[in-house]
Amino acid sequence: MEDKIIQMDTRILYLEDMVQQMNVIMMEQDRAITRLNTIVKTLNDKIKELDEKKGERGISAEIERPPHY
Predict the structure, then answer these.
(1) How many CB atoms lie within 10 A of CB 54?
(2) Cα(5)–Cα(20) distance, rounded to whole angstroms?
(3) Cys bridge to 65: 7, 39, 51, 69, which one at CB 3.0-4.6 A?
(4) Distance CA 26, CA 28 (A)
(5) What is the pLDDT of residues 17-51, one digit of tens each?
(6) CA 62 from chain center: how many Å?
(7) Nearest to 60 by CA among 50, 68, 33
């Protein structure tokens, strides 16, 4: 009976450790996702800004084919 209790305690400790490791990984992933979202927003803003500048100069916002096509 005591062996079973020791085995269950060992399993519980293992599971608690695994949950802690997963928590650390999830926090790292959350930070990475937040950084990536910031980068994507910045890039989208720059693209919009470039499109607006193109429009101001009379250049089509769509990509034009070179004349040799």
Answers:
(1) 13
(2) 22
(3) 69
(4) 5
(5) 999 999 999 999 999 999 999 999 999 999 999 98
(6) 29
(7) 50
